[in-house]
Amino acid sequence: MKGKVSLLAALLIATMAVVAQAQPRPQWSKKQAQKWYKSHPWQRGANFIPSTAINQLEMWQAASFDTATISRELGYAASIGMNSMRVFLHHAAWEQDPQGFRDRVNTYLSIADRYGISTIFVLFDDCWNKTYAIGTQPAPKPGIHNSGWLQDPGIRRESSPQLNDTLHKYVLDVMTTFRKDKRILLWDLYNEPGNSDYGEKSLPLLQLVFTWGREANTEQPISSGVWNKSLTKLNEYQLNNSDVITYHNYADEKEHQEVIDTLRKYGRPLICTEYMARARNSFFANIMPLLKKENVAAYNWGLVSGKTNTIYAWDTPMPDGAEPKVWFHDIFRPDGTPYSTEEITVIKSLTGKN
User: Fold this and answer.
1) What is the span of the domain harbouring residue 212?
2) Interval 10-33: pLDDT, tens
3) How many domains are contained in the chain?
4) Cβ of 299: how many Cβ atoms within 10 Å?
5) Which of 58, 95, 328, 329 could be 313's S-S partner, Cβ–Cβ 3.0 to 4.6 Å?
């Protein structure tokens, strides 16, 4: 009997351990978040997609996964002292080929790591095209900003309720696979929830992805960036559930400073995951020094001009495809020559590459 009791006790302890391990981890404390942030050098980089990809599917599908371009263009970033990139994933590429997708993510991380570049991965996105299809992606529409960029999951969230099961599996598979990977800085769970006129309809998915993200029990922090002060319910949820505070701001230095001052009140590290729109007075020369001074991690939109057409402004298409006099985003041409040598000098002075 004693042996049976001991065996039952051992089984009970083992079961409790499994249950405890399966429990979603809580939000990091402010102290834990600050300790994590201080353990890294100042992170500065760009939102990255290779110039040969029009969208996330073209970047991540096997037939168009372009390691040569990825390596070359991350080399451009490293040459000016950038040490981190923010990169968008897409669940459809995973759904098509889960193991291949994980392998390609690992390959990307290996390339970035060789250049001393950490990665923020973005899981869901409410921006640009509502529908998507696997396979060959469309050609860019001349002069139109992000003409082929894809929402994830897009409009299917309304027409296919069972999609949540797939999305849940996707999030858990990707995040648990890489939950301890030190090459990953942060999981950005949802880019600009509420954009594309979804508004508060995006709140249920936002809540779900945070729940799923906690289930993955990652050693990296999780977050979703605030971007529109009018989306009060979404902002409240994002700010009260993120381990570290992420945000977007494409305004000048005065407004950007006001945003930083407002977000400081939450007592968590700040990461600006999108800035730099030249036509809106958000430049490297005025914003990047501010972010360094305030110890805010800094990710501008765009690295190399390419199929995303982000040298064109959101609201100023140029259907003839002519090069705009002032680029909206991006730093380099595909051959590695900079849009502005003066900007490169500024960036290098701030990253210590001079």
Assistant:
1) 42-351
2) 444 443 333 334 689 999 999 999
3) 1
4) 26
5) 328
